[in-house]
Structure formats: structure tokens, C-alpha cells
Amino acid sequence: MRGGVVQSTHGRRAGRACLGEERVMRVSVFGLGYVGCVSAACLASMGHEVIGVDVNQVKVDLVNDGKAPVVEERIGGLIAEVVRTGALRATGDVREAIMDSEVSLVCVGTPSEPNGSLCTTYLERVTEQIGVALAEGAEQGGRHTVVFRSTMLPGTCLNLLVPILEKNVGGTAGVDIGVAVNPEFLREGTSVRDFFDPPKTVIGELDPASGDAVTALYDGLPGEVFRVPVPTAEAIKYADNAFHGLKIGFANELGAVCQALGVDSHQVMDVFLADRKLNISPAYLRPGFAFGGSCLPKDLRSLVHAARRADVSVPILAHVLPSNSDHLQRAVELVERTGKRRVGLFGLSFKPGTDDLRESPLVELAERLFGKGYDLKIHDANVSLSRLLGANREYIETRLPHLAQLLADSVDEVLEHAEVCLVGTRDPAVLSALPHGDGPVIVDLIRLPDAEARRAEPGYMGLAW
């Protein structure tokens, strides 16, 4: 892993792997639920030597009898075949599994606690057992790689599991033992199919050798491979599932509103889904600053109002604008955290290259800062008070009547004034003038092109990291 940058690999051979001359790996899989059972059977069918491990003796016996402990498409025949050929067996003995493998996949459950927090009890217990077993077999030599496939929040592996592993092994993770996080993207009902045709393979590697071991497991499968820092891999699974839930909730809420208004929601969504430029695309899916403008806020308000008039509850849609406002408030809080009073703001219009100030989040930000008594200077090369006309001028006179005294003619004028600079534009003249190191605190609202380098500087604060 170089500098925490995502490394992606394209062009893996399509279809199931036939290892042949490829290296056969000895793999132990801890937890024989849906994820563990499918992972074990599929890896065995690829030619690896796999041993499944579970505390439930019934599951162990079922696997050794060539039967699946879960109901899932294709899994029954697959397990029967790989057990018959000797590629897969199961045990309840952790030490036996560790001694007979070089890579361990941890696939135990991480259920919710009653308060919604993540239960890591099973993860901790298995990690401790693996560490003890590795310590007992240290004389055998060879580096073992522990791969966490269970879903867990960012920081769980490095802050909780790695210390448990190191304590029990008596060694250093990334040196004496390999550690990686390899989230699964298997859908129940089609998990075998998904294993052999994954949307992506994500490997959070503690060190390159750990990542190499996981990469070798899946050699021959199609799709793109992303080798990323461990916390990034942990977060990706949550990003996926949260977005999937959001999509379903959005579609259902919109469907309910359409039904109440006498509109065929499936016709609406057919056209919606046909838009691959803005709707089903990467558009709008990069963290940044709040949205605004003359369309999005207005139309969201109208849709939510129509739903309420029709007695249709739309909690997702109703909370989009409050969520947007909360994100804007985070920028205010970053300024407050500096303890400084002279503030510069680069950018004012709601979209670069325009002078449209209507419902611009930068105008709202300026209004909040000015209202809190900050000494504010603003520069936007596209905004001149003398050129503002009609609704645009009326809006700014209502929201920020002191704009004339806040506007600065140049980038340098803002930099000379400010102890804190908020950057909400990608204007090349602004970006090239921003200082490094000594100078004003930089509050990055857009993720600057050199954000990675600036993150190491004490005077840089990013809203869009």
C-alpha cells in the first residue's frame, strides 16, 4: 500500500479458475454460515484445499457428510462434489485448522446489539483462538495470513483485532503474521453465482504480502480488484449496503407518492433508469459541499409538500434538505474550531462558472458566518454586484444585504485579510494562489487537487476528505 492510494487491477481472466499450474493454497474458513459455507465450497471448487471450522458440531458433520448447512442455490451440489474429491472438509478444532492452512478466512457473524451498535464478540473470540493456535504452531515456520471477511466498522481490525492477534501470537502483524480485510458482496439466494462473478474484489491489506495472499485466492475470477488500506475496505461494505437500502427506500417512497397522485410509478422509474448520465452513474456521488441552486431545493420541497397533502409518509425524501443543512453547518463548525475571526471565502455562486446565487449553499455559509460576527471577505470572479439582475439580485439583497462591503476584487485581497480561508471553488487563480505550510488555515469544501499532500499540514481542514 503506497500512501493509502487505491490500487486497482483490471483484466483478470474471465470465468471460473482452473488452477492447474496455479498455486494451490491451503485455506481455513472460520464460520460455516452463508458467507463461510459459500466461500469454503467455492474456493475448494477452484482447486484450493479448504477446511471449514465451526463451533456447531451439526454444521461440521453436515459438511463432512457432503451436505450444505444452509439453503442456497447450487450450494448443495457444490459441497457434495468438493467433499467427495477431498478438497473440502470441516472440523471444530481450531488448532487443527490453523496447522493445516496458510490462510484463514474469518466469516463469523457481527450482529447488532440492542442499541444498534456492532457486536464484535464472535470476532474477538475467533481472533484470540487463531492467535493462540498460531503461537502453538510457530515452530512450523511460514507466515500465516488472517483475512477478515466479516462485516465490521472502520477501525475494528486495526484497533481491536490486530492487538488481540499480536498479543496471543507474540509477534507483529504485517511482519510475523499477515492481516487483511476482504469484505464479501454475496447476495443470499445468488451467492454462489456472485462468488464466481463478483461486482468487484476489495482487499484491505496491512502490507503488500498480505494483499498478495488474498489476491492469489481469487486468481482467475472476473472483475476489478481494489487493494486499499484496511479501514477503507471496512468502510466500502457499509457504503454499499447503505446505498442499497437508500435506493430501495427512495424507489418505494417515490412509488407511494406517484400512486397517491395517480401516476404509474413504474413508467416514471423506467425513464429515470434510462438516464445513464446523471441518474444511474457516478454523478453526484463524490463527497463535497452542500447542494443548492434554483431547482433541487425547490423541487424537493414541492414533492415533500405534495406527499404530506396526500397523507403519504416520506421520511427519506423529507430529510434530504435537513441533511443538506447539517452538512453546511459542519463547515461553520470547522471555522469555529480554529478560534480565529478573520475569514475569507472563495466562491459564492451555487455552481462554478455562473453568477447564480439563488439558494447557493455558499451564500448560506456566508450568511451564517457573518451573522456570527466573523470578519468576512469573499471573492468569486463571476460575481459582481453591479451585474446581478432580477430574481438573482433580489435573492442576494434579501439573504446577504451587506454583500457589497464583503466582496473583494482579488484573490490576494482575501488572502491578505484572512486567518481562515474556505475554498468552495476550483477557479485556477484561487487554487494556484493558496499557500502551503505557514499562512491561513485552509478549510477545503471541495477536496482540492492536492488534498492528499495538504492533509499532512497542520493548517489544513477538509470537509470533503
From TrEMBL:
Residues reported to bind GDP-alpha-D-mannuronate: 188, 237, 241, 244, 252, 284, 286, 289, 292, 351
UniProt pathway annotation: Glycan biosynthesis; alginate biosynthesis
GO terms of molecular function: GDP-mannose 6-dehydrogenase activity; NAD binding
Entries under InterPro entries matching the protein: 6-PGluconate_DH-like_C_sf, GDPman_DH, NAD(P)-bd_dom_sf, UDP-Glc/GDP-Man, UDP-Glc/GDP-Man_DH_C, UDP-Glc/GDP-Man_DH_C_sf, UDP-Glc/GDP-Man_DH_dimer, UDP-Glc/GDP-Man_DH_N
Sites where the protein binds NAD(+): 34-35, 54, 59, 110, 151, 298, 358
This protein's UniProt keywords: Alginate biosynthesis, NAD, Oxidoreductase
Protein known as: GDP-mannose 6-dehydrogenase
